[in-house]
Design brief:
With about 170 residues, the protein is mostly helical. The chain has helices spanning about 1-20, 35-50, 55-60, 70-75, 85-90, 95-100, 110-125, 130-135, 140-150, 160-165. It is globular. The N and C termini lie far apart (about 65 Å).
Length: about 170
């Protein structure tokens, strides 16, 4: 009996070494690597805005394009509005500029979603905002810029999260 138990244990261990390793499900692949630029973008937004990856993905699933998610989160962070209130207003046809104005949130520039992305990428990756603005003006989209900055890894300014940027320093 003891020999059969030892044999089954050894067989079980050997089977584990030959079985394929589980892979992340397609349902929530956030943080799985740099092969998918959109996954990296979700991961960076989650880290910068201090929201769960699931919460960031839920914003997209409620009809907000990936490139507009930073606008939703920036308005929510800088006002008393919830992301759901901002999503509802956006889905009802209001512009982000109108929603931001309603909640007393201002950013420079005519396009609120673009400015939110510029601030997010600049502060999160420690890059001068003018550098991010110039690269975007040359045609680079924000998802590609995020992936490039993540791969490069060097920053010219201190990296920040949205929360650390708004909290006073002691």
């Amino acid at each position: 009996m003891k020999a059969s138990c030892v044999f089954l244990l050894a067989l079980s261990i050997a089977a584990q070494d030959t079985m394929p390793r589980s892979t992340p499900t397609a349902k929530n692949p956030v943080g799985t690597g740099v092969r998918d630029a959109t996954v990296d973008y979700f991961d960076s937004m989650s880290d910068y805005f201090r929201n769960s990856q699931r919460a960031v993905r839920a914003i997209h699933e409620k009809g907000i394009p990936v490139g507009e998610i930073p606008a939703v989160l920036m308005i929510a962070r800088r006002s008393s509005a919830s992301p759901n209130q901002i999503i509802d207003a956006r889905n009802s046809g209001k512009s982000f500029s109108d929603i931001a104005r309603q909640h007393n949130v201002t950013l420079p520039g005519p396009d609120f979603a673009t400015e939110a992305n510029l601030i997010f990428l600049s502060e999160y990756h420690g890059r001068p905002i003018d550098q991010v603005r110039q690269l975007h003006a040359k045609g680079a989209d924000f998802i590609a810029l995020n992936q490039e900055f993540r791969r490069d890894g060097s920053s010219q300014l201190p990296k920040a999260t949205e929360r650390s940027r708004t909290q006073p320093k002691n």
